[in-house]
Each structure stands twice: as C-alpha cells, then as structure tokens.
Amino acid sequence: MINLDLKGCSGFVSDQEFDNYTTKALEALSILDSGRGAGSEFLGWNRLPSEITPDMIEEYLSVVDRWIEMEIELVIVIGIGGSYLGAKATIEALSHSFHQMSPSRGIKIVFAGQNLSEEYIAELMDVVSVKNVACVVISKSGTTTEPAVAFRLIKSYIEQSYGIKGARKRIVAITDKERGALRLLSNQEGYKTFVIDDHVGGRFSVLTAVGLLPIALAGFDISEMVRGAVDMQRICSEHTKDNPALLYAAMRNALYDSGKKIELLVGFNPKLRYVSEWWKQLFGESEGKEGKGIFPASVNFTTDLHSMGQYIQDGERTLFETFIDVRTIRRRVEISHDKQNLDGLNYLAGKNIEFCNKMAQKGTMFAHNDGGVPTMEISIEMIDEYSLGQLFYFFEKACGISAYMLGVNPFDQPGVEDYKKNMFALLGKPGYEKQGEELRKRL
User: Fold this and answer.
1) Catalytic residue status for 285
2) 420 catalytic, yes or no?
3) CA 111 to CA 136: how far, in whole Å?
4) What pLDDT digit, counting tens, does each position of 33-67 carry?
C-alpha cells in the first residue's frame, strides 16, 4: 500500500498548525464526497474504480484480441492532455526502458495529437507507412485542434491503405455518448466506440476507456490496475485523520500558506517521468486559477541533481519537494571489484546499484531539508499495475481535497481557452476575424 512520510516537514509546520489543516482537509473531503462543492457535476471519477465491472474489462480486451488476430503491429493513440497522459505514463512506467530497441513483439503504442509539430507528424507517418496499423482516437468533441489534425491525417492514411471497410475495423473512437463531431463521424462510419462519461473530466480519466484501452493494447494487466485503484478508493474515502490523501492535501496547503509556492515531484526512477507529467496536469489545471495555486513542477534524480540541484539546495526558499519512493525493484545489478580501482569505487564493490540509488535519495532529502526545503515521501511497493492504480487514485483524491481547501473549483479550466481563441484568430478560423486583425498587429 501507499505510505506517506511527513517527517521532512516537521521543522516547517508545527504539530498544532498541521492539526488545524487536517481539520480543514476533513471538511474539504466531506464537501467532495457529498457533492456539495463547485464542479460537483464532474465527480464521476470519485467512485469510478469500484464501478468498473468485469464486463467492461472484457470489452476493452475484446479490442485487443481482435487486433492481435488482425496482426496489428502499431496503434496510434490520438489525444491531448488527460486524453493521453495517463496512458502514456502507465505504458512508459511498465515498459522496458529500451523497448524501442527490442525486437517487435505484440502491439506497439505511439501517441499523436498532443502537439502541432510538423516534424513529429511527418516522422510518425514514416513509421505508420511501414507497419500494419490501427488507431484509437480520444476526444469528447472531435474538434480540439491538435488531435483533430492528427486524426484527419491518420484516418485518411488508413482509408487509402485499407479501404473504407478496412478502416471501420481499424479505428476505435472514445468520445461523447451523444454529441460532438467525433460521435457523428463514428455513427456514420460504424466505428467501435467507448463513451467518455460526462461526469469525468479529462485529467481524471485514466481509469476509464481513455487510459485502460491503450494500456491493455500495450499488453499490461488493467484488472490489476483497477484492483489497486479500488483498494486506494476505500482507504482515501475514510473520513479520518489517517487518510493519506487527506494528509497530503493538508500538508500541501499548510506549506503553501507558509510561503512555499512551488511543489517539485521527485522521482529516482526514470520510468516515472511521465507519471510526473500526468501529475503536473492534474494539479496545475485543477488548482491554478483565481490567482491561486501551488505551481507543480518535477525533477528526475539523480540526473537533475547535476542541473537543478544547486537551485533546489541554495535558491529562493519558495519550494517544497514530494519524493516518490519505490520500495521493491525487479532487477539487480551488482557493482564489480576492479583491481586498479582508478575510479575509487571499490568501496562499493558487491553492492547493488539500487542500494546506491536509495542512499542518494536519502542523502538528497537530508541535504535539501537542511537547506530549508520541506520534503514529503510517498512510497509505493513497486512499479507495477497494482501500485500505479493506487497512485493515480491517491493523487486524484488528494487533488480534489486540496483544491477545495484552496477555495477553487478543481474541475474547470477557464484559462485554457485563452490560448485557443488567439490561435484560432491567428489561423483565420471563421468568426475570429476581428480578434485576428488585432493580434496580427502585434506580430
């Protein structure tokens, strides 16, 4: 199970202060679970894990089985933000670090629609042109620019290569139940579809078809992932001061009110890099509004200790760190003895690399703590489906509690629309002519 260690914050937040914040967090949890808070129409994720049935899992796996029978080699998953980050984070965490170099076995997953880079799209098409491909397109509306552009290109390629009937077997849409351009197109073309629940926002959707279908296609055990999330749902729904999501939210807000405005999520395993990217969207989009919010950033140690370490140790004291600790690893590599010992490492001979990594982790926490940086540590058992299911739900629950403590709606994102309006105007989209004229004066 997930364990939360707050010892590294004891010198920055007193016991009495923290007790006051845990009381506030309990109030926020009550608001969240009762559906009395702002944005309560988007609380479908809150009880989602326990509502996932074996039949739902089987329906996702039926797509996997069908595409394996068709000898599909490559699936392009098209989406942006919450429509791809959860799947990307899970697949990267569970895959061999050098899977791109390994012989092609099973279905490979690549992502598109998360950027507007022409080189990225061109290079994607290079790969698509030499593989047996299928596509999962994820969008409630079907009109979000980045995924819509990518899907137009991929759809056209699939239709040209396999025909209209062939495309029907190779395209799955995850979209709105009734509305939107992608729903209309799916109905017209006869695509297999899964529904994005209106009550689940994109950044909370990793435990829906949005995340589970791509993860299953990559060959990972989504039943175990759901089981981990169900167990964490039970723990994080307890209205007690032992609830780890509640304690994490309480300490974040206590530190924020004391002047710590930046949270660094710290990993000591590069497999967790995209978990950090998912986490940044979850908290950034949920809390960053009305001139409020902790700025979520991430670092991967020990790598970033040689680039960001100096600032974290001695820079402005406006940040705190949350470390993700992995208690058990699957692989072992022992450091060998060298007769000459020119590198001076014989004192490590016989020790495992992970032992060194753990000591680096503890040493870093102590150093940063002594340098004025509060530290928390979230421990998971290992990097597997069960633990990742736990971690995703833990952060989602903590985010809802934390945002309500902050006094903002965790489930809207009004600021995201501003760049879109400017982009549409500059691209010449109909209806944006006047705004486009004004913006072009600034070019």
Assistant:
1) yes
2) yes
3) 10
4) 999 999 999 999 999 999 999 999 999 999 999 99
Answer whether 254's CB lies under 8 Å from 406's CB: no
β-strand pairing of 3-5 with 375-380: antiparallel
Cα–Cα distance for residue pair 198/179, rounded to 1 Å: 11
In the set 92, 277, 285, 385, the catalytic residue is 285
Cα 366 to Cα 321, 374, 376: the distances in Å are: 12, 10, 11
Catalytic pick from 420, 433, 437, 438?
420
Catalytic residue among 306, 339, 434, 441: 306
pLDDT tens sequence across 322-353: 999 999 999 999 999 999 999 999 999 999 99
Category of 81 on φ-ψ map: left (φ > 0), alpha (ψ -120 to 50) or beta: left
Cβ neighbours of residue 319 under 8 Å, at least 6 residues apart? Answer: 260, 261, 262, 263, 264, 312, 373
| Residues contacting 232, CB < 8 A, separation 6+ | 1, 2, 49, 389, 390, 391, 393, 394, 397
Closest-CA residue to 302 (of 347, 219, 358, 380):
358
Residue pair 173/135 in contact (Cβ under 8 Å)? The answer is no
Judge whether 355 and 303 are in contact, CB under 8 Å: no
Query: Do 111 and 238 touch, CB atoms closer than 8 A?
Result: no
pLDDT at 30 over 70: yes
**Residue 431 has what DSSP assignment?**
T
Q: At what angle do helices 385-406 and 244-257 cross, to 10 degrees?
A: 40
| DSSP string covering 32-81 | HHHT-STTGGG-TTTTHHHH--HHHHHHHHHHHHHHHHTT--EEEEE--G
For 298, phi then psi, to 5°, come to -145, 155
Q: Which residue has the tokens 């403590």?
A: 405
Backbone angles phi, psi at 307, to 5 degrees: -135, -50
- Which pTM does this prediction carry? 0.94
295 burial via Cβ count (<10 Å: 0-12, 13-18, 19+)? middle
Burial of 185 per CB tally in 10 Å (0-12, 13-18, 19+): middle
CA distance 204 to 210: 10
Q: How far apart are CA 359 and CA 363, in angstroms?
A: 6
Centre a 10 Å sphere on the Cβ of residue 251 and count the other Cβ atoms it contains.
26
**Does residue 422 have a pLDDT over 90?**
no
Task: Measure Cα distances from 406 to 40, 255, 375, 400 in Å.
Answer: 16, 12, 20, 10
Tokens of 413: 């994102």
